[in-house]
Amino acid sequence: MNDLLQPLRNMVERYDKHKRLEWTQELITIYEESRRIIADCQQLFLMDENARITLQTDASDFGTGGYLFQKVDNMVQVIMCISKALVGAQLRWSVREKECYGIFYCFKVLEDMLKHVKFHLKTDHKNLVYINCALTGKVARWKLYMQDWNFTVSWVEGQEEHQQVPDKLSRLVSNPEETETSIDTETAVLAVAVAQVAISDAEYAIISSQHNAIRGHSGVDVTLNRLRNGGYTFPNLELKVRTFIRKCPLCQLTSQIKSLVKAQNFTTAFQVICADHFRNTRKDTSTHW
Ligand SMILES: [Zn+2]
Hints:
Elements: H1 2-13, H2 25-39, E1 52-59, E2 63-72, E3 75-85, H3 95-109, H4 111-114, E4 119-123, H5 137-146, E5 151-155, H6 164-171, H7 185-194, H8 201-210, H9 220-229, H10 237-247, H11 249-257
Parallel strand pairs: 1-4, 4-5
Antiparallel strand pairs: 1-2, 2-3
Helix pairs in contact: 1-2, 3-5
The chain binds zinc ion.
Zinc ion binds near residues 211 and 245.
């Protein structure tokens, strides 16, 4: 679309209101073509919590796809489409793991919308109907994340009416050959969990002198700075401080009760923030809002 519109942008780049724009046949064709593409865009709907909401997911060798829709008056209304390329180690996962990850990823993306409503999950992999079966490692973590959600699950044939959508979305990914050498998030989480070191009594006393009820339960960076400024240093200082804070009972407690803030940080001065609201909406004859 961007490339298609470029000639139109070029035309208005040095727009002079005293001169007529030169509409060549080529520009007219581009204009008509872009109008057609925009008109053909999939229409998206706001979620209606009273409707039957269905999430369908699928995975291909190279990606995962998700399709969220609802049925209102027997009409299918698309709410959101999700497509995600698998990278690095994810490409070597088993089919089952890729399928599970596809569901987990869609849940993550749709958390704000779906966490507190009842919906139906459909997926084309038979094994996933047995969502309660015990699995180890990352798949178990994904299932743990999903277990308090309010949803029903069923298996769906690959040829089923809507299943072709997530199926296509899971293939709508670029550079399947490209592999990423950096650690993916799942492995990274695992890496943090195991990267703990033994802290000697003397080191423990030093760190606790800078991270306590009086000095404050500050984070890793602040505690590290305090230690360095105080002239304290020993091997693996950062890792030990990190381990110390992760095991600090009060920090564990406060990290759990900290309310989830679902907002973007605005830290730059004079940053422009746009806001909008709507009210008193009514359905028109074609049930659009
Ligand atoms: Zn603490």
